[in-house]
Design brief:
Blueprint (H helix, E strand, L loop, with lengths): L1 E4 L2 H13 L6 E6 L5 H11 L14 E5 L8 E6 L8 H12 L3 E6 L13 E6 L7 E5 L2 H7 L2
Parallel strand pairs: 2-5, 2-6, 4-5
Antiparallel strand pairs: 1-7, 3-4, 6-7
Helix pairs in contact: 1-2
Bound molecules: adenosine-5'-diphosphate and magnesium ion.
Adenosine-5'-diphosphate binds next to α1 and α2.
């Protein structure tokens, strides 16, 4: 399923909308170049999960966690940015795996390629592209469950 998103807010709102469909611990893998809208999407997800803290890019920290209020199952949002990391950083990958395996955590990963082998089968892959128009983005989602809900 492909979306043409015309503005920052459109990217944010897609994240916010998808947040409503997340009923269990999941991994969301966000692929796409620098500046393609991945962090904006996570900010929307956080808003949809009623997180009031500002979500900033965790590039230099690798990972940041936020507590999710008032959700039946999801208690923690773990936002990973693997841009400056590599899979030989085993302490970091072990740490990320703990969040991935936690039943009450939603783990969202920017630059997930190097972590592919650690990601569960049900990972929701979302691809962000700059597209041919300036100030627009194309987003593709390949998850059946989410796409079914988005098309209603
Ligand atoms: N659909 C969109 N159209 C135009 N600009 C967008 C869109 N989505 C996000 N942006 C803007 O693109 C810039 C980079 O977004 P960001 O989410 O930080 O990208 P990434 O995390 O992929 O590097 C920000 O200024 C953001 O407001
Ligand atoms: Mg980012």
């Amino acid at each position: 399923m492909k979306f043409l998103l015309n503005s920052h807010n459109a990217t944010f709102n897609l994240g916010k909308k998808i947040a409503k469909y997340l009923t269990e611990s999941t991994v969301i893998a966000l692929q796409g170049d620098l500046g393609s809208g991945k962090t904006t999407f996570v900010q929307g997800l956080a808003a949809g999960l009623k997180i009031s803290q500002n979500v900033l890019s965790p590039t230099f920290l690798f990972l940041k966690t936020y507590s999710i209020p008032k959700h039946k199952i999801l208690k923690t949002l773990c936002h990973v940015d693997y841009y400056r990391a590599d899979k030989n950083m085993s302490t970091l990958t072990n740490y990320i795996q703990e969040y991935i395996n936690d039943k009450n955590t939603l783990t969202v990963i920017e630059w997930p390629e190097q972590l592919k082998t650690y990601l569960p089968k049900g990972t929701i892959w979302i691809q962000f592209l700059h597209g041919t128009f300036k100030n627009k983005r194309v987003v593709s989602i390949v998850n059946k469950k989410i796409c079914a809900k988005l098309s209603i």
